[in-house]
Structures are given as structure tokens and as C-alpha cells.
Amino acid sequence: MAKLVMIVFFIVILYCLGSGVFYLIKTGGDSRIKLARALTWRIALSLTLFGLLMLAYVFGWISPHQIMVAPPGY
Fold it and tell me: Rg of the chain over CA atoms, in angstroms?
């Protein structure tokens, strides 16, 4: 469940980044405001995702992969 939430967060972050690029390219009256809003959302969601990753690690919901070490003489 925790991994699914984090994947959804990552997809929304990528969407905000894409909309920020769109508003950067688009010329118009309020495109700069929309650009700032999209990038603000991206930063806020990225910080939230980082916090969720730390909490999930502390509570044991996720764990890092083990490093595979080759046996001696391999």
C-alpha cells in the first residue's frame, strides 16, 4: 500500500513538472502565475514524498535492497 501511494505521488509530481514546462513555453497573460503555481506544487509534493519515504522506512513499511556481494574468488 505504501509503495502504491508513493508511485501515485511520483506520477503527480511528473504531471506538475510537465505542466510547468507547458506554461513556460506558452505565452500569455497569466502563464507566469500558472508556471509558478505548478512548480510550487511540484516542490511541495516532492518534499511530502521525501517525508513519506522517511516515515515508511522508520516504520518498516519499506526497506532498502540488499547489496549483492560476489563470493571470494568469483
Answer: 19
Q: Give first-to-last CA distance, the chain, whole Å.
A: 39
Q: What is the pLDDT of residues 3-32, one digit of tens each?
A: 788 899 999 999 999 998 888 888 777 888
Please list, in sequence order, all residues whose beta carbon lies within 8 angstroms of the beta carbon of residue 23, skipping any fewer than 6 positions away.
31, 32, 34, 35, 38
Other beta carbons within 10 Å of 15: 14
Task: For 33-56, give the DSSP string.
Answer: HHHHHHHHHHHHHHHHHHHHHHHH
Residue 2 has pLDDT above 90, yes or no: no
* Residue 26 backbone dihedrals phi, psi, to 5 degrees: -70, 135
- Residues 23 and 9: their CA atoms lie apart, in Å, by 21
